[in-house]
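Need a sequence for this fold. Nothing fancy.
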């Protein structure tokens, strides 16, 4: 097979691409990269853990009959919420009376695994999209928003201003994986062609894990970001973002990577 034909079929051939997603989520991106010829270097800079207390979430679940909308803004939120729902002895039937909002197609697909079809999915797969979708619908309504410990206050603030009562218990938290620092330093020394970040927290943790010398080396590597918020964080922390898909999904990120490396290779 000619070199040109190989580059067409494997546009990421020979490229070492860092994947910083949580371990249980890394395969979706790393497998796609491998199919395109890249060598995915998987070093999670984030791990998802239970919150310090489930008390607020448990109280909210006990009052599901009083909820009008359930807002699930990530795959992690879907999984954490339903894990707790099951632990407390409920199932998807407890949600039959309310409107379920999934932030995007991946969250909606995860919901399907729990027997629930999302009633609403915004066009913009971010918190901003959820606000735009709901702000004219929720006056006088009660919303349940199981969130990450470090989630932005955008949804509660904006939808409260729109007249809703927003109940926002912490459903999950995050931590830095063990041994991540040494693994990152080794990956940087061995050489990387691209860093990928799929959340602002993965960028911040990445920076926090490195010493000054390693961080200087890392900032010389171009970055692919899942979306504008992650890109903003990366740029503020001194990185050069060269890839950002129009839509904040993994599939679109992979498509954008193909475009980027095709242009680099040509």
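Here you go.
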């Amino acid at each position: 097979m000619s070199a040109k034909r190989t580059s067409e079929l494997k546009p990421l051939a020979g490229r070492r691409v860092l994947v910083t997603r949580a371990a249980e989520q890394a395969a979706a991106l790393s497998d796609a990269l491998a199919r395109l010829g890249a060598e995915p270097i998987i070093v999670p800079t984030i791990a998802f853990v239970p919150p310090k207390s489930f008390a607020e979430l448990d109280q909210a679940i006990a009052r599901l009959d009083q909820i009008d909308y359930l807002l699930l803004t990530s795959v992690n939120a879907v999984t954490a919420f339903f894990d707790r729902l099951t632990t407390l002895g409920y199932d998807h039937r407890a949600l039959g009376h309310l409107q379920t909002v999934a932030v995007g197609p991946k969250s909606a697909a995860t919901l399907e695994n729990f027997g629930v079809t999302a009633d609403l999915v915004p066009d913009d797969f971010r918190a901003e999209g959820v606000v735009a979708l709901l702000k004219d619908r929720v006056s006088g309504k009660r919303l349940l928003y199981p969130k990450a410990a470090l989630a932005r206050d955008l949804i509660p603030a904006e939808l409260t201003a729109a007249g809703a009562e927003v109940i926002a218990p912490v459903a999950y938290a995050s931590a830095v994986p063990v041994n991540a620092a040494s693994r990152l330093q080794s990956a940087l020394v061995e050489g990387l062609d691209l860093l990928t970040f799929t959340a602002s927290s993965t960028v911040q943790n990445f920076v926090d894990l490195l010493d000054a010398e390693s961080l200087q080396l890392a900032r010389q590597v171009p970055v692919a970001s899942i979306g504008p918020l992650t890109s903003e964080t990366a740029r503020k922390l001194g990185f050069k973002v060269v890839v950002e898909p129009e839509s904040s999904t993994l599939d679109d990120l992979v498509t954008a990577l193909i475009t980027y490396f095709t242009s680099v290779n040509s």
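For context: Residues 144 and 167 are 5 Å apart (CA to CA).
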